[in-house]
Amino acid sequence: MRRSSAASASSATSRSSKRHAKRRKKRNRNSIRVQASDNYFFEQFQSGPTVTVLNISTTDPSSSNSAGPAPLSIVRLSINDNPQNLHELYVEALYTIVHKVGRSSLPMPEHQLIRYAQQAFQIDEVSHTMLMDRAKKEKPPIVLLNVQLLEARDLVAKDINGFSDPFTMMGVVPGRRASRVKNMNSQNTMRDENGAIYGDGPYGGVYGADDDFASRQDDGITPPHSPSAFSNSGMRNSPDARGGSASVLQRFGGSFRRKLGGGSRKGAKSPNTAIPCKLIKASSVQYKTLNPKWNEKFQFAVDDVATDKFHLDIWDHDDEETRVLDAVTSLNQISGLKGLGRYFKEVAQSTRAGSNDLLDDFLGSVTIKIKDIPSQGLEDWFLLEKRSERSQVTGHVLLRLWLSTKEERRPTTHEDEDQPEELVDVKQHVELIRQFALSEIRTSGAPVGQFQGHLPEAAVTILHQHAIQGDLTELHQAMCQWLAYNAMINIGISYAFLYDILSNLISKWRPLALDKDHEDLLAESFEAFNESCRRAILDHRSATNKPSSPGGSKTRLELDSFGNMIRCLKLLRESPLYNKCVPFHKEFLTDIADILVESANNYFRSLQLESQSPPRTACDELYILVEGINQACAKFAQFDPIFKSYAEVDYAHHTYQEFDRLLFEYISSEMMSEKSTDLKSMLLKVPEDESTLVAILKVHCVLKEFNSYRKPKARYKMESVDWSSTFDRAISKWLDVAKVKAFARIELACQLDAQIQIQSSNEIRHTSSYVDICHIIEQLMWFWEHVLVKDLLLRTELTEKLVQSVCKIAEYYVDRVMTQLAADGFHGQLQPNLSPAIINIFCAAINNSEQVRRSLAITDKLHLDELSEMHEKKFRKEATWRITLERDLTNCEKYIGEQIESSVDRMVRRQIAQLKKHVFHLAWSPAACPVEQSLKPLTDMLDSELSLVHRTLLHRNFVRVMYSQVNVLLQLLQECVTENAGLEPTFYQRLSEAWNILQDFFHAEGKGISLEAFETIPAHKVLVSQLSLNQMPTIKLIELYYKDLLKEQNDVNECKYGILNLRAYYNSNSQTLVIDVIGAKQVIPLDSNGLSDPFVVMELVPRCRYASQPTARTKVVSKSLNPIFDETFEFHMPPKIFPSSMVHFVVMDHDFLRSNDFAGEAFLDLAEVPGFGQPGMSNTLRQFNLILIHPSRRPRECVNVLGSRKEDKDAQEFVRSLTVTY
């Protein structure tokens, strides 16, 4: 059942929506008919048949590379269209995985890396198996250990001067030796350019085959004996090169000899004691220091990463005449393993023969397992180890170690055959980055522009291994990232991301860090990026003219991308890396300025071609040309901040100046033509035909807009083009024509209104006519804002004419609507029950009128402040015409509002009889009946009436209905109070509570009349005041009367009736109020002689509080306006005074023949008299200067209320006292 109800509701809603859509469609058709009736006279300036400016590209579309491409999503895309090249790159990736080097902090299994590579390259299983076999069959790479000896610290001092002369000797010690001793006698050694010893075999060199030093070390890394024991043999100072280098070689030989079996230091030789040393290198000597700094690099071949070790010794060099490198180089003179063994034996025997002391020159050693070196390299301070417990070794050495490889494979492609190996590694790395990036973009399904270079762990591991095996430094890797992602611009890679990549590359680059081939590769990519940016700047207008998504989000993204492109270009062009790779180029700022000028020129030429096809009149051609330029200038707000922020170039200035020059040249050329249909002939006089008039004014509008983009204080060529006189006359004529066209449209729109049947539904009632009238006013104001009358007097005159036309259009339309409403039966005294059709017609009429009234808010669009200022500055007089204009608009709005309110009042007052009945029921319901219950019939009726129009009226009109109901109820309640005066206060209290409830009803929780708005209704304030007074006790009303008089006296600003001077105090001891009446000044003359005979009467008021107190009176001072009385009066009274207690002074003019005349009165507030409530001040006199007043003649409400209380003795006595004369 519920589903059925829901389905029915949904179906009803659908049918209702369709009906609404049909009515809207019909109303739209009516509006189109109205506009077409005068050939779109008002609309031609915003969009007309002649305006066909297109999005024009200034570059070749096939080569254009927009700064903000559409968000691309990649389904299947690779970097190589050639499957052969893709397979070769895949083999390279597999080869890298198979031959991983170094220890990883987060090791990933090989099969996971292979699986990821297969997915990234999208290789099927058959091809994968074949290519995997190829990768495994390739010759394994040679592993290289790279060592950077940086510095050492806190070494032991070995020399007398307290320093040492440290140097290092280092090499790779093989871990597997048993199988490597074979055939060593046939191996020869050779020397590299640094003096390192290489063997012809896989181990480079072999030490200790016949050397008895081989038996002195065990298999551990035990430091050697000091070779300095042979220092007395004289070999160090021997001029013989071989003898001079013997001590150095002995040190190194002792360190690298290993004892494979057990035995004492002097034990017999063990079999297989030969220790192969594949590579030996020595550093330079740092003299007289304990904290040497070398910063030297070395490279060693590693045979077995799992077992080989790196060993380093630090020695003190004491022979200043022998270079360490020479000592190591002398090994190059030995051929054969036996000769090498005899050489070390000879050195050892000769040095021992002269040994008389045990001086130790050993400074420490370090041994590092190759397998412990992380794949990303290692840089650390290593603790120097001792050779024995008696050795004095301290300090640390700072080393940086990393692994790389050297491949001896054939080139992967034919293109790589003639390229250096380093360049091949770089290109392969670039292609791998791109392939993995494309795979991630494809997998995520997100637009390319959202990719920020985040690759999965597998991809990072493969790239990291490829960089290690290719010996690619961080700089090389940064270069590869730039080359890879720069090549992806054409598919929409983010320029913000590219900026970060470029920043990283520039920050890592140092002079001479890259070889020529790599610099050439970068130069090629930089030039390609520069050209891509140049094309994007040339074509930047059309790039952002493409259709965008709702809300303009695409445009914002495009502008952000374009800005990041400029930022990236500036970073590149101003970097030292770009200057090194591309040495001959323009300055960046000059180049950008030239590109902007070229872009403007290309755009103008394209517009010119567009304006001439198909052939048009001269005015139409000029209009299309300037309109297209304005479209480009409108984008200054978008592009100028970008170029200023990122390129420090004034985009608007360069572009506008070029447009100004080109447009001036075009107009100058056109004005020299002598044809009858040329521009010059059309602008000589105001045309009679409407089409030419509109064409001239359209040219004026676009030229005015073009001039609005100028910068102040700058000079432009178009300033010399002045057609203002022709334009001024054309504008005046157009306004005359527009007024006639507007009234014709009103007639047609009202006629078409009758064809639309207003049906009952939950939507705002209106017809299409108000849309047409508001559209006319809007078009008039748009036209006025887009034209400029140079003649100031004419401009003022036309402004008045425009305002008068708008007001007449609005008033005429409202009159037509109200006349039609009356013709439809809404006139005279309406019946209480109206048909829905009449109610709908009523709602549509007042809604239409209200919409037109709202359209009259045109003051800001008239720019009256600016026009008034110009008028006053030029003519030196006040712009009185502005007051007239504003008064006309105000009167027009007021007139429309009165028409609406008159109709609303007629609608509400049709039920006044029923409302009066409900108010009577409320007033005379039993006191036991709650007010809410008594009020319910009235509120139900009001709610029912409001519900009829709640959904069909505009909010302002709905509130007007509520205001009308409020006014009717206020009238009825006021009549009830007036007709029932003098009743008990509870009667009025009940009416007051009812009115408070009604206020909340009309407030409707903030959706109706605001509570503050009630205070602006005069009838509300009168009713609330009367209800409040009628609820007050009599004494309170009397006190209120005197309080009002005292306030009136205190508020007087001028002395019209004189001043009464007196002194007063209260003696608390005798409980006496003492008053000294001194005199009066400036009493008004009341006698025929221009004088008066004044005397003063005083009494304590209110009299009901002080009935026992007598009335005092001074003597009469004859013929004086400034009498002196100087009399004292005493009133015995308790110290506690009542609220509003005061002394009432009345100044009278004594008359012998007639009654005395009233001269003025004053009041003294007893609360201000010293002594009342102020102990210790009872004897202090205080003088008072009381201004005499004449009470206002208007009746006081409190007196009227008191007079209505016929049964209240005090009230009647007080009213009679007001008529007593003295």
Give a verbal description of the structure.
Pfam families: C2. Belongs to the unc-13 family. InterPro entries: C2_dom, C2_domain_sf, Munc13_1, Munc13_dom-2, UNC-13_domain. Its main location: cytoplasm. The chain is an alpha+beta fold and 1222 residues long. The chain has six domains: 83-140 and 421-581, no CATH class; 142-406, C2 domain (Immunoglobulin-like); 588-721, no CATH class; 736-906, Orthogonal Bundle (Tetracycline Repressor, domain 2); 911-1031, Methane Monooxygenase Hydroxylase, Chain G, domain 1 (Up-down Bundle); 1035-1217, Immunoglobulin-like, CATH 2.60.40.150. The chain is 49% helix and 11% strand. It has 38 helices and 20 strands. The strands form six sheets. It has a four-stranded antiparallel beta sheet. Strand 18 (1142-1149) and strand 19 form a beta hairpin. The longest helix is centred in the N-terminal third of the chain and has 35 residues, at 2-36. The radius of gyration is 54 Å and the shape is elongated. The protein starts with a helix and ends in a 5-residue tail after the last helix. The model is unreliable at 1-13, 48-58, 60-66, 68-77, 178-278, 330-359 and 547-553 (pLDDT under 50).
